[in-house]
Amino acid sequence: MKLILAALLALPGFAHAQDLIIPQFTEEVASGITSVYQGDWEFMVGGGVAAFDCSGDGKPDLFFSGGTALSTLYRNDSPTGGALKFTAVTSGAEMDRVTGAYPLDVDSDGITDLIILRSGENVVMKGEGQCKFHGANEDWRFKGGDAWSTAFAATWEKGQTWPTLAIGNYIDRTQDAFPWGSCTANWLHRPATGANGFAEPLPMKPSFCALSMLFTDWNRSGTPSLRVSNDREYYKGGSEQLWHVEPGAEPVLYGAKDGWKPLKIWGMGIASSDINGDGLPDYFLTSMADSKLQTLADGAAKPTFKDIAFSLNAIAQRPYTGGDIHPSTGWHAQFEDVNNDGRADLFVAKGNVSEMPDFAMKDPNNLMLQGADGRFVEVGDKAGVASMKTARGAAVIDLNGDGQLDLVVVNRHDRAQIWRNSSTKFGHWLQVALHQSGSNRDAIGAWIEVKHGDATETREITSGGGHAGGQLGWWHFGLGADDTAQIRVIWPDGTKGDWAHVKADAFYNISPGVGPTGP
Amino acid sequence: MTHFARFACALAALVLISPAFADTRHDEAAKVLDTRYKLVLELVRHTPTYTPPVASRALAYLGVASYEAVASGSEHMQTLAGQLNAFTTPPQREAGAYDDAVILEATLAAMTHDFFGNTGPTGQHAMESMDAKLGVDAANGLPDDVVARSVDYGEALAAHIFDWSKGDGGAVIDNMGFPRSYSVGKDPGRWLPTSKIVQQQAPLLPDWGKNRPFAMPTGATCALPPPPDYSEDKASDFYKAADEVYQTSFKLTDDQKSVARFWSDDAMLTFTPPGHWISILNEIANVKAMPLDQHVDALARLGTAMADAFIGCWRDKYEFDVIRPISYIKKVIDPKWEPLLNTPPFPEYPSGHSDQSAAAATVLTQLFGDDFAFDDQTPTPDGTPQRSFKSFWAAADEAAMSRLYGGIHFRPAIENGQAQGRCIAAFTTALITLK
User: How far apart (Å, rounded) are the C-alpha atoms in residues B387 and B403?
Assistant: First the structure.
């Protein structure tokens, strides 16, 4: 008789922990961040954090959604390579009922703006510099509506100087006795014709209670599609979605005839990265119990994805420490190279929805390192990030400019946590920021390619995904033992930059035809 | 004469004796019953432990509770106490006026919280919202003392039935029904895990067949003969049964695919198979403006029959521990084969849907007659078109065959499952509800 336990221990990946550099994270309890994501039913989802530099010092500042509490912007005062220090500042973006936020230079003035998702009217905040913002809904004719907004993604469609914003909406809040089947329409805010700002939002039907969205060029066609991860708890007849969004045309869903296979999960977060080196993005979808890691089954010809989470040991299905064996609940997910070994690792924020006894109450966040064979190994406890608090949004980002990625996690009904990557043994790295003149200053939709040793890393520059929060600024690459690398940018218009040789362990700015240059 | 025809005769006799029996509050009570069951079916769909056997159990207790709530004030209805296993005499109404709508609301509100206490935040929110709305609506215009007396009685009845339920062996569902440790059979032909979800590497509820049934004596009362002996020989019955599933999968008509999807009734994505049949009954009750006493009689019989069918079926599933078509066909016939439907995470023989649908058809045919035509809209909110049936057996036969079309059952599991369902339901149809 074969024991199930033996089968589980035989899962791929278990034999490789000793081969990996396990990063060390130190929780900075005196960082100055005191934000708590609060609220009952309407705030059981959401809780995102936006990471971007609004102070102009090159280090990312943090904007936290607060639910029924006010949202808060914290200025990053961390010394380079030192302890993480933040100071709450009055930004003008303080408001209640905030579920999430994403940074984006909407009006392409070179100052990052902020899209704030709410249970109520969504708000676009225009950045003024020095971490000051003012509401711009009226100026930009942005109709914030009145819904339970929970997802966001942005792209610049071809020929447009203003972005297209997709906003995902959740349950109809008025249907409290029968909320199931009451998913409200997502919105596509496209640029106004012949003027600055936005046109009337286009309802995207059908909509199935989106909790994450991402404009992503899944087949490298040059035109990003919109992936939408939906919560099956509330939709009827729904599934995960992929919209073909052709400029000037109504979005069209990919369907069975295109090769798209229905998938019904408690979709909560999207992370993307080219983890198998084929130049095409792969997608991790968080859910309850059965997260998915999808790769194209038959190449870029059609959007047929297969799940490789089990074979790569990236299931993150239940707690790996703490003794609770119930299934996990995953939220924000993000691929980043946390040990600078040249391979994308995977962080997943975990936390019970709300006292659901059949799911883990002690649900540690995951940190899965990718090994040389592509398989993932859980090291959250060994790395020091296995918090049992009820996590929602998160950001894996270099907060103190030392080249090692730090971590911030938003918790429901509890203080946000922030960890400094305090590893002493790690590989080389570089970080890249993209700059364009004209519109789309941060080159959303570009691809950065980095060659080092025998490896080529490919990264799509996106705005959206995760769970209710995103980041903008430096894009990080681990280089392992390689102290030099080559960089090339494929710009959103398809123009391919030249390969440039760079030294490791530095920050580089790149513009079309210019760079890389130091910060 | 159908059971309901006898019901109508009894009622007519009583009305002649007591014209005041005509309950002006009937519509309010019917509204409570309909609305509460709509919520319950959503909770079945959205509560993580509510796999089909667990759903059948809750629906059985809710049916009995609904029945006793109404029967306790009726001169022509007889309690099920003493007829259902270990069900003792429920609390009696005392002197004073009562209201059926308020009693039903109080009973079902308490039962809903009792059985779905582990549902998620939205289910909790919905239950609280419905408690507030339905409770107020049901009590509207009634004297305070009648409301208070009726609420007290409904809650006492619910407590009695919930206490009864605690001893049946199915009250505690750990790890969503998947055992924390389990040894998968190593002999050829034994069940093997069919999904890549870690939790489902062990099969669902292996001890469910040991539960106390409602109307049949024990889980083994209608035990089945074994399925064909396992064999990989092309001349064997087992291989032929597998090959039928395999060959059928390539010849499915659009209608057969629709049939498979219509009856898929997956846990966590639908009302589950027992919920599907409860939905059928409630649709009929709405369309036919079914009298309250008949409706609760039907809910009790249908619920208990399907729950007993799951107990008998699950006993035999683990008695024979048969491999699923996907595992056999991939090993023996075609490693690349994929069935139309998701394969459920438990042994193959007998087919649970075939079994409990046969039980349902047996009960509903007794109540409504052999040729009762109806439309079934249960899955339409999920985009699946409604289907129409000439009889309950036409629906049950289709539900049974849907498992072969879907590639998740061999024919012997379907046919013998139906036989078991008929056998088990006979104990429910024998229950006496009319005095």
Answer: 17
